[in-house]
Amino acid sequence: MVLPELDWVDKVRDQAHRVRQRAARVCAANNGGYFAQACGSAEILSTLYSQLMDLGASTGPLVPDHFRGVPRPGEPALIGDIYNGDRDRFYLSPAHYALGLYATLVEVGRLDSCVLDDVNADGSTMELIGAEHSPGFETTSGSLAQALSVAVGQALARKRFGRPGRIWALISDGEIEEGQTWEAFQAASNFGLDNLTVMLDANGLQVDGWVKDVMKIEPIPEKVRAFGWNVSEVDGHDPLAIAEAASSFVEGQPSLVVCRTNPINSVPSLEGRHQLHYIRFRTGEVEAIKNDLGVLEESHK
Fold this sequence. Notes:
- By secondary structure, the protein is α/β, with parallel strands linked by helices.
- It has helices spanning 7-29, 35-52, 98-107, 146-161, 179-190, 211-214, 220-226, 239-246, 285-293; strands spanning 32-33, 89-92, 167-172, 196-202, 205-206, 209-210, 230-235, 255-260, 279-280.
- Helix 5 (179-190) links the parallel strand 3 and strand 4.
- The longest helix is centred in the first third of the chain and has 23 residues, at 7-29.
- The chain has one domain (8-60, 76-293): Rossmann fold, CATH 3.40.50.
- Strands 2-3-4-8-7 form a 5-stranded parallel β-sheet, sandwiched between helices. Strands 1-9 form a two-stranded antiparallel sheet.
- The model has no long low-confidence stretch (mean pLDDT 91).
- The relative contact order is 0.17.
């Protein structure tokens, strides 16, 4: 889990910055994308993959094959979980965070950087909205809240079979509006799933605007704590705070870490922009974002 030395914190911060740079290059090449999600979750994903999760070695190719179709007799489909090893398991619930996940997998050596050229390309497994055949994904979760329920089921199965390893999930605050999320919270508490840790990217953003303007969901920590969870609240851009909170377990209770994040962290040129869920760049924005992040005019390969 967390190393006693603190030099890893700077390494994770640097890695998160490179995740943003890689996301910026991909979105610039496609004149848009789910850029804010990668910016806001960069420290969460980097801390998970570099410091918290005990995944084991990836068995996935550094450059994944193109999509071969759905599973059928004699032709099994590529399953993205092979990039996450065989010990702990990780579920990314907001599938439109895929670019941030791919960039993180590149940073930790589980994917070759050249694969970012194939994000959202025809026939590629590097889906814009990740699916079960996309690197790093264990299940399709394009309908928000599905992956949390799968994570609860996996944690319950490990409990009942006495299997080691931790189940990790990353969800978004928009999912708090989904009834399935609360059913999963209730079930996890009921079964005492202390082998489950959920990271919540609370960036205040959803497809129709700001969460507070669409549906009032706060106070999240108090609500989930009332369901019987061990709940922490941290700055989602502070790797040390994230790691310490996620390493704090309570016997018999699942854990939730509410990570308060800024969806345009490190990109001040996007301040004041109303539409951030899926960004289509305006004149001059690409250059401004590259200047914010120090992105050079070179290939991300």
